[in-house]
Design brief:
Blueprint (H helix, E strand, L loop, with lengths): L2 H16 L10 E3 L23 E4 L7 H7 L17 H15 L2 H12 L7 H13 L14 H7 L1 E3 L3 E3 L4 H9 L3 E6 L14 E8 L2 E9 L4 H14 L4 E6 L2 E10 L3 E12 L5
Antiparallel strand pairs: 1-2, 3-4, 5-6, 6-7, 8-9, 9-10
GO molecular function: hydrolase activity; lyase activity; metal ion binding; RNA binding; RNA endonuclease activity
Cofactor: Mn(2+)
Protein name: Uridylate-specific endoribonuclease
Amino acid sequence: MIESDRELSSIMQELWDSDVNRLQPGQDYRISLQGKAAHSMPLEDLNDGAGSPLFTFVDENIFKKETFLAFISLLDNYVSDTGEPEIVTPEEVAENHKFLDCIIQSPTMKIAHKYLVEKNLSPTNETKFKEQLYRIWFELYARKGASKPDSSGFEHVFVGETRGGRTVIGFHNWIQLYLQEKMGHVDYKGYSVDANSPQPDENKHILALQFSWKDGIKPKGSIFIGVSPEFEIALYTVCFLSSPNERVKVQFSFYDVEIVCHHYNEKHIGTTYPVLLKYRKPAQ
């Protein structure tokens, strides 16, 4: 690994270790991988590799925790189709601020903030740091082809969007996936693997998958499963601010991961998600 990746791996490990709200697979949640997703095109011809939902059980008591509650309140604040201008109400702005207030107090975000301050990438002042987070995640911008602000980093990554009603873009969050699947809006179509990717299993916290949402299809997406909202915001913010490469390879826990983080106008997150490169089995 190159030097900067080693340093980022070290901070990612700290973020991982501090994520006290992470769910344990098999205990707090269970998933059913079923079959491998097809990758034939056109999208209409994709076969369903999974007859049942991805999530077979989630202990919803976790959703009563402060950061989860604040996160879930944001998921209904967006119009999914790109090109449709987003109108942000005062209530929604207040919900955004409440979410940031909650996560900034978490051990995970405190570690991320300290690291970013040491690197001169974030202001020391907590209020100013929150303003920086707000700009990165919640400030609206016009996605490709749109004339008015219709998207934000948070909407794209955590909520998901549709393009032309047929293609799902973004949508890299397990909580949104679980809740949408529970409501019948998501149809899980199987896991995705290629020649180089490790075989998925029910206990890994990273999964590549295919699913349909509303009337659109996500041919291949990749998500963390079971991690807390504060962990994801912390990890992605650190990558966004400290790596201009837009792709950074890190190691933490048993995972070798590439974090893809595309910038939008240098100020906002366009998209970001994890790609599992290798899994090092824990020693028995």
